[in-house]
Amino acid sequence: MSTNLTKEEVLKLYYEMRRIRRFEETVKEKSGTDIVGPTHLYIGEEAIAVGVCSNLTKDDYVTSTHRGHGHTLAKGAKLDRSLAELYGKKTGYCKGKGGSMHLADFSVGMLGANGVVGGGFNIATGAALAIQQRGGKEVAVCFFGDGSSNRGTFHEAVNLAASWKLPVIFVCENNGWASTTRFSETGSIPRLSERAKGYGIPGITIDGNDVEEVKNISAELINRARNGEGPSILECLSYRIEGHFLADPQLYRTKEEVQEQYENNNPITRFTEKVIRQQLVSEADLREIDDKLEAELQDAITFAENSVFPEAEEALEDLFVGEVTLYE
């Protein structure tokens, strides 16, 4: 299928997906030495974050999951401060105290990764309510996994958003696994997007490993929300290439299954082969981006390694907003 993307758009999408992939590969390489705390990698799902966020402005909001590096970077966060946060350093976005599962950058509308399964639903819905009350044109996007769709917060948030026609898009990253359990073992319907019918809102399932399809379909739902037509559910089918967490022994699936997905359903490889085949870009164009990324990544590593850790007494800072009165 031919693409309607311009060369500039192709290079931008490739850059953003490769940026996430190389960041995650670096985190995997540094795990056990420099990376602090539990970490969940986004490898294999880059097309979802990049495709959706390509339609968002800096003023739009996103909420994430415990697997949040990709969303953070796609929304515009910097490599160096993101990596410093995972190193537990003071120069990180959360001053080294949030780590991988609480990575956030409010300056670009990234309201935070979340260690609580399903923790982003009500935050995104609350952000959408604030937008509506102030008469804004922004939208909120809630990224979530198929496993969290069975939590009560999913139904609470979607029901409220539908009732009040809030400008929020619920983006399910159905990566095949809720920790160690397949979605088919916990759901009574083949497609999670069908749940949208119960709330009277649109629900669409797409190929989450096709960045152009994600970009195009999410643009329609985002524009719909901006125009005051309310929420929707977008289910993006993908596959989690890495384990649930870095030290996951992955006894619940075979290495052959993972290898097949990596070779045949890799979103970056699929996109690269497509745009080169259609002569939208050359291999030299993509190599130039790869070289640029390697330089940016090395700078980020140097920044993180040379940054200092927070002092012990700083653990009690940033706990409250404004002046707090303590009662005896």
TrEMBL record:
The keyword Isomerase does not apply. GO terms for biological process: pyruvate decarboxylation to acetyl-CoA. Residues 15-312 form the Dehydrogenase E1 component domain. GO terms for molecular function: pyruvate dehydrogenase (acetyl-transferring) activity. InterPro entries: DH_E1 (IPR001017), PDH_E1_Alpha_Subunit (IPR050642), THDP-binding (IPR029061). This is Dehydrogenase E1 component domain-containing protein. It comes from the Bacteria. The keyword Oxidoreductase applies. Its cofactor is thiamine diphosphate. Keywords: Oxidoreductase, Thiamine pyrophosphate.
